[in-house]
Each structure stands twice: as structure tokens, then as C-alpha cells.
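Incident log, structure service

09:12 report received: a user says their structure output differs between two submissions of the same chain.
09:20 pulled the input from the user's history:
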Amino acid sequence: MYDAFFDYLSKFSSEPLSDDDKALIRRTFIPSKLRKRQFMLQAGDQCKYFAFIVKGAMRMYSVDDKGTEHIVRLGVENWWMGDMESFVMFLPSPYHIEAWEHCELLYITREGAIDLQKKVLAFCEMKQQLDERNHMANNRRLASAISAPAVKRYTDFIECYPELYKRFPQHILASYLGINKDTLSRVKRQRYQK
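09:34 re-ran on a clean worker, output below:
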């Protein structure tokens, strides 16, 4: 399980991980498994762990007063999953995080993440690069949700995240894109007719 994470980390740093770095990472991360439909986090609980997805697919969502699910984030192998605000601010989360498939995960606590940032250069560099990428991706998604037509949202999504498109069903993708299933069906038909 750890080898997948070591390979992932190596993509963010020109410096190879030392044996001491690997030993510290092994001591810091907690291996775990979730069955399909099992929760990593439920709304109202504090997000005490962030998870690196070694294997499987997950979704993060909220549920409104009418019982409608609103997908906030999707994740597959080599992605991270957790509620950052709850994790950093020690607040109850408004989100559910659920395994969409059977998952193998590496959990890290906030204290563990802070410690690794101080002691493992590759982890620090990864964190910085991911923060930058996430900031840009969130801005793009927000701008798209505010002003882009459904066809553009769908096209951008499948171009940027083909691995998600293949792993999640249409109703999940529609919720993630902020459109209903019927609109997504119509958009797909229009796109393939061109």
C-alpha cells in the first residue's frame, strides 16, 4: 500500500525519498479499507483524517432539506479525500464522504501532516503543489458553475477528468456538474451528434 504512495510522492520532488523518509511515512499514515457504501465521514462529525486513495473511488456530498444529494468532490486512485475546512478548523463537517467502490486508503491526521511537512521535503513540495492546483481547479469550477452552459461544463469535465467519467454513473456526474440527469442525457446526445 505504501509503495503506491511513495511512487506518487516521487512525482512532486526531484529528491528521492530516503529510507528514513519512508519509515516516517509508514509510521505516520494509517492503512485502512472501506467497503463499498461505507462512510469515511458523516455530516456533523469532525474530519479527523485525510485519506490518500490507494485503490477505489469515493464521493463527498451534502444533502439538502429536500433530501437531494449535491456532489462536491469525486476521487479515485492517487487522489486525496477529506473535508479540508473541518480538518484544519476542527469543525463539524456538513459533508458525507462515502466509498463508491471498495477502497484501500492511507489515513493521515492533521498533526501527522504538519510533522511530515517539516521533516519530508517531498511531502512538503507535494502539499504546496496540490494546494496551488486545487485553488486553480476550484476557481475554474466556480466560474463554470456560475456562467458556463451545461454542454461546456460536461465537455470540460470529461476532458479534464476522464478517469472520473469512466468510474461514476450518470446521476453522480450530473450532481457534480450541477445539472439534472435529464439535462446530462440531452447534453451527451448533443455532443455525440456533432
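09:41 both user submissions now match this output. Likely a transient worker issue. Closing.
09:42 reviewer note: Residues 171 and 181 are 6 Å apart (CA to CA). Residues 121-147 form the longest helix (27 residues).
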